Structures are given as structure tokens and as C-alpha cells.
Amino acid sequence: MRLTRQNYRPRRGATIALVVIVTMAGVSTSVTAVVPSAGAMPVAVAKLAPGEFALPPMLVSGVEAVPVTTLVAQAAKRPTGAEPPQALKAGTPALHQGGKPAVVFIGAEYCPYCSSERWPLVMALSKFGTFEGLRGSTSSPSDVDPSTPSFSFYGSSYTSRYLSFVADEEENHAEQILQIPTPEEQALIATYDTAPYVPAADAGENPIPFVYMAGKYVLTGTQFSPGPIAGMSWATAATLLTSGTNAESKAAEASAGYLVGDICVLTHNRPASVCSQVPTVLMGITTASPAK
User: Fold this and answer.
1) Is-contact 97 14, C-beta < 8 A?
2) Residue 290's pLDDT band (cuts 50, 70, 90)
3) Where do the domains of the chain lie?
4) How many CB atoms lie within 10 A of CB 74?
């Protein structure tokens, strides 16, 4: 299944630097260290942005605690409502930071499709490392799928022995600038957030969410629809998406399972406690992988 226009938002962020890079050695491995926009408060001391709210740790833990076995079992079913990443072209340079494969997220808090994508990202990445400072957020109330609840990566950090994660939330709930991607990140967007990874008609829009996975895989839109959770409270959405008993939770969990399978390829099957649970069919799974 290829992404269509309704799976993403045209990017409204900073002008893209038309620079091709091989590595991102200058980008920090911590989300909190990403350079903010001119005049913005440094992320490490930022207050809650409009539309953000504190999350009780137990609610966050409930999302992170969905077992790997559950995620990969849902992904192995290849549900129609969930999509794996796309494979980048052979020969794409590897992307590492601090000797670890780097995953880069570019999104915005107003964007409903970014809201839905953060759920499987948190489910999957928490199996390889630890988030600190995750906030709650909702997408714009005036966009499609209004007030979709989600996490925000703004002001958070991620620590892992196995991979690096960098996130930029370009604008807040009210479409005010939060962070501007670095020139290196802009170059990734210019090169890989375009055709052939988005439909040719939309190639110049550089859509969000954009997830670049260490030179191996890319997402240029959400993996599953935000529609079913639009307007819900955060706690209700979290319960729904982690239940495994409805189409929405199965899609969210399968999306996370796809990410786990691809991340295990990036980390060379580390940690074994996670990757030993991933069936071969999901290792390096992409939109081009044949369905069972």
C-alpha cells in the first residue's frame, strides 16, 4: 500500500537546505539538544507549549509496556490498516551518531498524522531504550481528525545503547514555531521526503510526519489513520490503542511491530531479548515485502 495525500500533511516548516550529506555527525543523540528555532527557548528548559499537558508516568508506562510478542504478532498478520516503512534505495549512505544507527523524526504538534505516528514510535523505540520527559499533546482542533491525542517529543530525551533518536516538533498545537531542523536534517528532508518516496504530484511538499531510519528505511506519512482516536481524551486513546481487541489497536500495534522488525536490522539484532522474538518475515519488512 502506497501512501496517499490523506496520510500526511504538507510541511510548513523552515525552507529546506538543498545540501546532500553522508552523515549527521554534528547532530546530538538527545532530543533535548536539537537546535531550536531562532528566538525560541532551549528545549531543555522549555515550558509546556499550547496544546501540551503533563502525562502521568503510569499512563506512559502502559503504552511502552505492550509486549514485543504482541506487536510482532499483530504485524505478522499484515492488517490492511497498518503500513510498514519503505525501503530506501540501495546504496543510500548509512546514518550513524555516536557509533549507533540514527532514527530521525520530523513532525509538528498540530498535525493529526504526526499524532497517530508517535504512538507506534513510542511503543517500538521503548523496546530499545528509555524516554524521559514525554508530554501529551493534541493536534489542531481545526484540522481534519481534530484534536487527535498523542505524545509530543518536544522537551523529551531518549537514551539507548543500541540506537540514537532525534526528533524535531516544528510547530506547536497553535502552529507557532517550536524547532527548526538543523541543516543536516533539512538535507535528509530535501533528499528523501520527496519522490519516489512520496507520490510525484506531492514531491515538493516534503510531508510530515517524516521518519528516516539510519539510511535503510523511511516513512513519509503515518502508518495508520488517526481518525478513530480524534477528539478522545489521552487516557481513553491510550487504553484503546493498547487493548489489542479492536481494529485501531491492532493497526497501532502492527505499526509498532513493523518498526521493531526494521530497528532490529539496524541494531544487528540487539538487544537479543527483543530481536529474538521477531520472526524472520518481519526483519527488514517494507511496503515491498510480499504478504503471507
Assistant:
1) no
2) confident
3) 5-282
4) 23
